[in-house]
Design brief:
The chain is of the alpha+beta class and 289 residues long. It is built from seven helices and seven strands; from the N terminus they run αββαββαααααβββ. A four-stranded antiparallel β-sheet has the order 2-1-3-4. Strands 5-6-7 form a three-stranded antiparallel β-sheet, with no helix packed on it. A hairpin with a 7-residue loop joins strand 5 and strand 6 (263-269). It starts with 23 loop residues before the first helix and ends in an 11-residue tail after the last strand. One of its GO terms (biological process) is mRNA catabolic process. It comes from Rhodococcus triatomae.
C-alpha cells in the first residue's frame, strides 16, 4: 500500500526439502499467502511459478512445463520464474499482470540445440510467459480461498502518502502541457534541463498556496512525469528519447583506449559510457609479468 511506513519483513525458512524439487517459487507463494492472512493492508495475492521449455528426442520443439523437477531441467533449453497477480476476472477468464520475470538459458542449452532441440527465441519465450499465467491465476485463487477462511481482520495502519490529491491536481494543471511537450525532446541533457526548469516554475507558482508542502509538490511532479512517460509509450508507441518501443540504443565497444595500462576498454550504449582499466604493476615489472 502506498504510504505505508511500518516495516514488514517476511522470512522464509526451509525446514525440509525434496532434492528433486526447487523451493524458490514455493517461497514466493508462501510469502504472499502469509502476508495475505496476516491482517495487513496487502493488495495481493501474488503467485509465482517456474516454467521451463523441456525438450526430448521425440519432441525437439519442446513443451513449457510448470514447476519442473531438477531432472527435467537437465533437458530444458530455457527456464524462468514468473510472478504476477490477477487484476480482473477469475478462473479461465482471469487477467494476470506479470510483475517479475527472472529468465535464463540453461547450462545445457548449447548441446541441446546442437542436438536438434528448439532454440529459445523471443516468440517462444513469450509463449512461456503466457503459459505461466493460468498457473499464477490458480495460485492466487488458492491464496484468496485460504484468506477467506483464515485471514485476520485487516488492522488499522497509518498511511502517509507522498502527496495529497489537491497537490497533484494543482501540479497537473500548472505543468501538464509544458511537461508533456518537454518529454518529447530527444536529447537527454536538454530534456532534463527543460524538466528542471518547469519544476522550478511549478514550485514558484504554487509556493504560496502550498506553503510548507513543498515536498508534496516535488513528489506530485515526479508522479506526473512518470504518468506522462508511460502514456507516451503506451499510447504513442514512442519513448521519451524518440526511440520506438522496439528500438535499442546504439552500442559500441573498443579496447586499448588508454596508453600505459595493461588493459582498457570502453563500452558505450547511447549516452552511457563505461570505462574499465587494469594495471598489474609498474613498467619495470612488465617483462617479469
Amino acid at each position: 500500500v502506498d504510504g505505508l511506513r511500518n516495516e514488514i519483513q517476511v522470512v522464509v525458512t526451509v525446514m525440509s526439502l525434496d532434492p528433486h524439487d526447487l523451493y524458490d517459487v514455493v517461497a514466493i507463494n508462501a510469502a504472499s499467502a502469509s502476508t495475505q492472512i496476516a491482517g495487513l493492508p496487502f493488495s495481493g495475492p501474488v503467485g509465482g511459478v517456474r516454467v521451463a521449455l523441456i525438450t526430448s528426442p521425440e519432441n525437439p520443439a519442446g513443451q513449457w512445463v510448470a514447476f519442473p523437477t531438477v531432472e527435467q531441467l537437465e533437458n530444458a533449453v530455457f527456464d524462468m520464474v514468473v510472478a504476477g497477480r490477477v487484476v480482473a476476472g477469475s478462473g479461465a477468464d482471469a487477467d494476470v499482470a506479470i510483475m517479475m520475470v527472472e529468465a535464463e538459458a540453461t547450462d545445457n542449452v548449447i548441446s541441446l540445440v546442437e542436438g536438434g532441440a528448439q532454440a529459445p527465441t523471443e516468440a517462444i519465450v513469450a509463449e512461456g510467459l503466457e503459459a505461466a499465467k493460468p498457473f499464477i491465476a490458480r495460485l492466487c485463487a488458492a491464496q484468496s480461498a485460504l484468506a477467506s477462511k483464515a485471514a485476520k481482520p485487516t488492522g488499522e495502519y497509518p498511511v502517509f502518502p507522498a502527496y495529497e490529491a489537491d497537490a497533484y491536481e494543482a501540479v497537473e494543471s500548472v505543468a501538464g502541457g509544458k511537461l508533456a511537450e518537454a518529454l518529447t525532446i530527444a536529447g537527454k541533457q536538454e530534456r532534463d534541463d527543460r524538466t528542471d526548469e518547469i519544476k522550478g516554475e511549478v514550485l514558484v507558482s504554487l509556493e504560496e498556496k502550498f506553503a510548507g508542502r513543498e515536498k508534496e509538490i516535488g513528489a506530485a511532479f515526479r508522479s506526473l512525469t512518470k504518468k506522462l512517460v508511460r502514456q507516451r509509450i503506451l499510447r504513442d508507441q514512442f519513448r521519451i528519447d524518440g526511440r520506438g518501443i522496439t528500438d535499442i540504443r546504439s552500442l559500441s565497444a573498443e579496447v586499448a583506449v588508454i596508453p600505459r595500462t595493461h588493459g582498457s576498454a570502453l563500452f558505450e550504449r547511447g549516452e552511457t559510457q563505461i570505462l574499465g582499466v587494469t594495471t598489474l604493476d609498474m613498467v619495470k615489472m612488465a617483462q617479469q609479468i
